[in-house]
Amino acid sequence: MRKPYLIIASALVLIIATLSAISCTAPLLSKFEDTRSMMDTFVTITVYAPDEEKADSAIGVAFDRMEEIEKVASIFDEEAQAFQLNRDGYLEAPSEDLRQLITKSLEYGRLTDGAFDITVQPLLELWGAGLWQEPQEVQERRINETLALVGGDKVSVEKSKIFFTEAGMKITLGGIAKGYAVDEALKVIKQMGIKHALVNAGGDLATLGSKPEGEPWLIALVNPDDLTQSLANFTIAGEALATSGNYERYFDPEREAHHIINPKTGYSAQECISATVIAPNATQADALSTSIFVMGPEAGVALVESLSNVECLIVSADRTIYVSSGLSVYLAESESGE
Q: What are the start-end ranges of the H helices in 49-95?
C-alpha cells in the first residue's frame, strides 16, 4: 500500500532536482548601464547580465561598434569616409557600413518620394552660413541655385566606388546614421549572449527583447512645448523608436529656420513639431521619423499605414496630434520613462 506514495515522493524529488538544475543554468540578472558622448549626442547602453564582467564586455564592444560607424559616417572628421566623399565627390573602396548607409538612404528617398534626401547638405550649409539673415528674394535665388545639387538620383553606388554626378554635391547622414549605429550595437550585444538590452542614442533607440521578467521597456516622449513633461509613454519589447523634432536645433535666434530641411523647397519643413515612429529596427524608425516630419502629418500617417509593423505619433504645427491606427498597442499610462 506504500508503493504509490514512494512513486509520488520520487516524482517530487525529480521535480525539485529539475527546478534546481534550471535555477543553476539561469542565474539572476542585474541591470548595468553606461553613457558616453558620441555621434553629436549622448548614447546610453543598458543591459541585463549575470555579472559586471559580462555586462562591461558587452557594453564595451557595442560602443566600439558605434565608434566604428561614427568614424565612417561623420562629415566633419577629415579621416571619415563620408567627409572624403563630400570633399572629393567620389570615394574608392568604400566600407560596407558606408555602402549600407547610402544604399538604405536612397531606398528611403524613393519610398518617401524624395522627402528623405541625404544630399541636402549644401542647403544646410547655406542656412548655417546665415541665409536666414538675407532678404526673401536673395534666399529664393540662392536656394534655387543650390537645389541643382540636391537629389538621390545624382548619387551612384557601385561595389568599388561611390560618386556624385554633379560637382559640389554633399551628403549628410544625420537622419539615419544614429539609427543604423543603434542596430549594429544591439547585434554585437546579442552576439555576446545578452538577451535583454536597450541602446539609446539621443532618442533614437532600440530594444533587445523585454526586461528579464517579461516586462516591456517604458519610453517617455517629451512634450515639445514643455521639455520637463512627457506627451505620451510607450511600451516596447524588441522594437525601435525614433523622434524627429524642430525644437532643439535652430540656425536663427527667432527659431524659424531649423535643421530638418524640405529637399523640394530648400526651406525648413514647417508642417510638424515632432514625429515619432515605432518600427522593427532603429534604422527604419530614424529615417521614417525624418521623412514624416518633412511630408507633414496626413501624408506621414498615410505612409505609415502602408508599411508593416510601423506606427507613428505626429504633432502638427498647430499642435494637433495624429496617430496611426495601431499605435494604441504601444501606449502606456505611466508618467515615467526608461
A: 52-73, 81-88
Q: What is the pLDDT of residue 312?
A: 98
Number of domains in the chain: 2
Q: What is the C-alpha to C-alpha distance for residues 61 and 282, in angstroms, rounded to an integer?
A: 19
> Is 240 inside any structural domain?
yes
| CATH code of the domain containing 95 | 1.10.3980.10
The boundaries of the domain holding residue 109 are 81-164
Phi-psi region of 147 (alpha: psi -120 to 50; beta: other; left: phi over 0): alpha
The yes-or-no verdict on residue 248 having pLDDT over 70 is no
Cell of 312: 507613428
For residue 289, give the nearest of 157, 201, 164 by alpha carbon.
201
Measured distance CA(306)–CA(298) in Å, rounded: 13
The angle at the Cα of 40, spanning 244 to 87, to the nearest 5 degrees, equals 100
Q: What average pLDDT does the segment 249-254 reach? A: 62
Confidence (pLDDT) at 31: 97
310-331 pLDDT, tens digit per residue, is 999 999 999 999 999 999 999 9
Q: What is the pTM of this model?
A: 0.89
Residue at 59: amino acid letter: I
Largest CA distance in the chain: 103
Q: How far is residue 163's CA from residue 178's CA, in Å, rounded to a whole number?
A: 23
User: Quick one: CA dihedral 133, 135, 138, 142, positive or negative?
Assistant: positive
Residue 8 has pLDDT above 50, yes or no: no
Q: Do the domain assignments include residue 231?
A: yes
pLDDT band at 233 (very low <50, low <70, confident <90, very high): very high
Q: Are residues 235 and 323 in the same domain?
A: yes
Please give the residue that has the higher pLDDT: either 246 or 5: 246
- Residue 214 identity: G
Q: Are residues 150 and 241 in the same domain?
A: no
The pLDDT assigned to 1 comes to 40
Measured between alpha carbons, how far is 313 from 197 in angstroms, rounded to an integer? 24
139, three cell numbers = 534666399
Please say whether the dihedral angle defined by the alpha carbons of residues 227, 232, 233 and 235, taken in this order, is positive or negative: negative
Q: Using the 3D structure, point to which of 164, 194, 228 is the last residue of a domain.
A: 164
